[in-house]
Specification:
By secondary structure, the protein is an alpha+beta fold. The chain is about 35% helix and about 25% strand.
Length: about 425
């Protein structure tokens, strides 16, 4: 039986009772998400609407010995005004101070925490070339910052916190206060914030490690994806690919969690060896715009055709960001038996929806997903098949009946996924 709607007073009382869990969540993000070290700078990027939670995180960070906490604020309405009011060339070059801010923070060894919360519909109708141009400019001008994140120099973590427009989208039939409360509950539950979150994450990381070990030992040459929705895709893997997932590792050996929540094990495929057609299983929310019911066709690794029921211009802007955005940089495997999938919610947020479904990503590949890749530059990685791009856009393909077959170099085939879950579950 469905529960009765909560009154505003009941919601306020429930939120007060939730405060200890919010504190636990903040502690988890600081201690395990970015693995903050004494004296280290922490950079928090967050929507202004998340101010109360950011105050908790900031307090926890200082208690943990942060040398300083820098805040970078964002707001969907202000971003929308900027895109609507400024010409395209305004986004093709970052202000010098902005590039230096990010590069210098990375250079000095800062950890970066993104509090993700946005209106999924905020950028409907925006000229999609403008966010794409901004992404390209950032990639080009913030090379030192990007290298710090991509090559194990700086710990980083993306985690969620509700904003009202997002909560309304996920829970359209509830009052504003109850929608916010329910979204907080969903975030805390899927991030394993319960009695002992750090122990929960140790156990979870060990489970992901088992799947990584099994895939790395099998060392497949390719993966074959099939589903009744029309997906029939072969993704070739590099000879020295590595499956990763769960905790990331810095050059100094420190462990951190780039995503909270995370349910995936992933690798970077050979950029030139994808062929066939893949269909989306969930909507893609990108820079505040939604792409629904889309498909991509690949030949020799490159997207050669695509379509969408909604948001095709956004999809086109992603693919046409640069040449590398036409190729895959990631394939991630996630069982449908995960806390996020079991909520039955569509979050309209990639951080959550990608962890409810097997997904692929157009754009940049990962150096840690190639043996010795962390000691290579991007040209060397490209030469070994690991893609390079200003973009990295995950899209969900994990239909309930998705089958994935591992193909070895000698042609031997083994089931990896059967009807959306690991064959060994």
């Amino acid at each position: 039986m469905a529960s009765l709607p909560m009154t505003d007073e009941e919601c306020m009382l429930a939120m007060r009772r939730l405060q200890p869990r919010l504190r636990q969540y903040a502690e988890l993000l600081v201690s395990r998400g970015v693995a903050l070290k004494p004296g280290q700078e922490l950079v928090i990027t967050a929507p202004v609407e998340s101010l109360k939670f950011v105050r908790i995180v900031t307090s926890v960070a200082y208690e943990a010995g942060a040398g300083h906490v820098t805040h970078i604020w964002c707001d969907d309405e202000l971003t929308r005004l900027e895109y609507d009011s400024c010409p395209l060339d305004r986004f093709q070059q970052l202000p010098g101070w902005k590039a230096e801010q990010m590069n210098s923070l990375a250079r000095e060894g800062a950890a970066f925490l993104w509090i993700d919360g946005e209106d999924p519909d905020a950028m409907l109708g925006v000229d999609a070339s403008k966010p794409a141009a901004r992404a390209l400019a950032s990639h080009r001008q913030c090379a030192e910052y990007r290298r710090g994140l991509d090559f194990g120099g700086n710990a980083w973590c993306i985690a969620g916190a509700p904003v009202l427009a997002w909560a309304r989208k996920v829970f359209p039939k509830l009052s504003d206060k109850e929608a916010m409360y329910r979204l907080w509950i969903a975030i805390l539950d899927t991030t394993r914030v319960a009695d002992d979150p750090e122990s929960e994450w140790e156990t979870h990381n060990a489970m992901l490690a088992k799947s990584k070990r099994r895939l790395n030992e099998a060392h497949y040459d390719a993966l074959h994806y099939t589903s009744s929705n029309g997906t029939d895709l072969v993704v070739g893997l590099t000879p020295k690919h590595v499956w990763e997932g769960g905790a990331g590792k810095l050059r100094d050996g420190s462990l951190y969690f780039p995503n909270m929540p995370t349910e995936e094990v992933f690798t970077s495929p050979d950029r030139a060896r994808t062929s066939g057609v893949v269909h989306s299983a969930l909507p893609l929310v990108h820079n505040g715009s939604v792409v629904r019911d889309f498909w991509l066709r690949f030949e020799e690794g490159r997207v050669v055709d695509f379509g969408a029921e909604k948001g095709v211009d956004v999809l086109r802007s992603i693919i046409e960001t640069d040449e590398g955005a036409h190729y895959l940089g990631e394939c991630a495997l996630i069982s449908k038996n995960t806390p996020i999938r079991q909520t039955g919610l569509l979050f309209y947020n990639t951080l959550y929806d990608e962890n409810a479904s097997c997904h692929l990503a157009l754009g940049m590949g990962f150096p840690e997903c190639y043996e010795g890749g962390m000691d290579m530059d991007k040209d060397e990685l490209m030469a070994h098949g690991v893609n390079e791009s200003a973009q990295h856009v995950d899209f969900m393909i994990g239909a309930d009946d998705l089958d994935i077959t591992g193909i070895k170099a000698d042609g031997t085939e083994e089931p990896i996924f059967i009807h959306g879950q690991w064959s060994w579950e």
